[in-house]
Amino acid sequence: MITLVLADCPVGLRGLLTRWLTEISPGVFVGAPSTRVREVLWEEVRTYRGRGRALLTYSTDTEQGFAFETHEHRWHPIDHEGLTLIHRPSDRPQPRPEARPPTSATGTTRTGPPGASARTAGGNEGAGWSKAAKRRRFGAR
Question: By the number of CB atoms within 10 A of the CB, which of 57, 90, 107, 138 ranks highest?
């Protein structure tokens, strides 16, 4: 059994795939062709996809019971201790690496966002992992 998902691909490619697979939703094809036909279809998709992207999943004799391939897709399959997982790159900007935290006169390390004062007995401002502290540190998202 295979599932093939196309995004932003030419109509002609979709028509070619309907000869072998059933289109259950726009750009989503399912079917049970042989391994040889699956490989030929995947090559056709890679050749004629235009500026689109494609994702192929198929049944196989592995621990997971399936495997997948991607083409021109931001998400990539990676192997993690024998399991194939999808790596999704983050859209968020990565925080800049911070310098070593300053130490106080007593030798203890001060933690928290740069520029934040240490917690005082009278207030809750400063470092911490509350939602407000995260907003102060990373900004509203």
Answer: 57
H/E element, 16: helix 11-17
**Across all residues in the chain, what is the average pLDDT?**
78
Q: d(Cα 84, Cα 64) in Å, to the nearest integer?
A: 8
pLDDT digits (tens, 9 = 90+) for 56-69: 999 998 888 988 88
Taking phi over 0 as left and psi of -120 to 50 as alpha, with beta for the rest, 128 belongs to left
pTM (whole model) above 0.70: no
Residue 41: Cβ-neighbour burial (10 angstroms; 0-12, 13-18, 19+): buried
Cα 101 to the chain's mean position, in Å?
Answer: 32
Cα(10)–Cα(35) distance, rounded to whole angstroms? Answer: 24
Element (H or E) spanning 135, and its range? helix 131-138
Residues 68 and 137: their CA atoms lie apart, in Å, by: 39
Mean pLDDT is lowest, of 91-105, 106-120, 122-136, for 106-120
Return d(Cα 3, Cα 23) in angstroms, integer: 10
SS3 110: coil
